[in-house]
Amino acid sequence: MSTSSQAARPVSPAAAAPAPPVISRATAALVLSLLLGLQPVSTDVYLPALPMLTKALGAPMSGAQLTMSALILAFGLAQMVWGPVADRVGRRPVLLLGLVLYTAASIGGALAGSIEALVVWRALQGATLAAAVVVARAVVRDLYDPVAGAQVMALALGGLGIIALLGPLLGGVLAQVFGWRGPLTLVAMAGGATGIVVALKLPETLSRSHARVLPWRALLSTWLEIGRHPVFACWALLVACTYGGLFTVLASSSFVFMDVLGLPAAAYGGAMALGSICYISGTVLCRRWIARHGLAGTVWRGAWFTLSAGLLAAVPAALGASSVWTVLLPYCLFAFGHGLHQPCGQAAVVGPFPQAAGAASALAGLLLALVAFGMGRWLGGALGDSVEPLAYGLAFWSTLTCTVAWTLVQRHAK
Q1: What pTM, to 2 d.p., does this model score?
Q2: Which terminus of the chain has a lower count of CB atoms within 10 Å, N or C?
Q3: What is the pLDDT of residues 125-153, one digit of tens each?
Q4: Range of the domain at 134
Q5: Can you tell me the distance from the alpha carbon of 317 to that of 111, in angstroms, rounded to the nearest whole number?
Q6: Percent of the chain having pLDDT more than 70?
Q7: Domain total in the chain
């Protein structure tokens, strides 16, 4: 994939930029882990509390699902604002403002007195979370070419996996001890801590202002150019499909494991942590395979794990054989494949657009969020006393992920 020739299409040529700041890979990976880790913190930590808050606030299951779906939809839409702003004014001010507002929204959610108020606070939380995630992906493109960026992203997402591992465990313990407000309080603390680290460790990575390169009036045409780019399209679809499967588990697993299969909150947290260990293992293998097989070769191999997960989920559900392990094992296998797909996709989706990385990141994030929102709304009506919505949803997204990895990515990413 030649990024230098592709980069000129969505943006106007400009004078050569000065070199980006020198940041060690370890420091970059740490900061990226914390920024990207706020997304699983916002979703995973409070998963054990979902059944509790439905009872405490007198809300239906669809209301609890809406607290997740509202966050995801606001997260996707707000990226369309934060991305271009970060291209224009810089990464650091957008990050710091976004993290302050995220922490404030998280505090509001922990203090909410009704399901309606919680939905509003969660939507605001998603809108401010978008600043952290969209800028994190743009920072990778500021500092690295797509292949090196994918390796750093794999390292960062390994750190994210550790956060995702600890999140459900801590959330389960806090939910049992303090009720549903305990996990949401931890989310607020995580936002504040991340803001402090960013303020101390991350300099401005945008080499110059892109105000002339990306004027506001040209933003729509720029997004159209980015969306039509075949390299962007194949990687954005891959990221959206693999996250669709992950979100299916996140949005339904607490009800399936706790209400249908009878696991207590702490044990459910342990089950989700096992999936996070598998995800971390996938990111470790991803770093090795990128160097050996490249981005397209890595996701081609990773798709076999994803397909196996879908089959392991769908077959027992179709046969009526439901247990903790018939749900947990497919999730773990899918999480392993997700650890191979996600670093490649997250880095490569902005690869062709070094001068509009924020805009490209935002558009990819919107697609991901729309997929998750649609899946969340469907699950809100489909979930009941069966594992089938989770199992068939995971199988559906596994199939789509493999299809994209074996066709579009192989055709365009090389």
Answers
A1: 0.74
A2: C
A3: 999 999 998 888 888 878 887 778 777 87
A4: 24-207+225-412
A5: 39
A6: 92
A7: 1
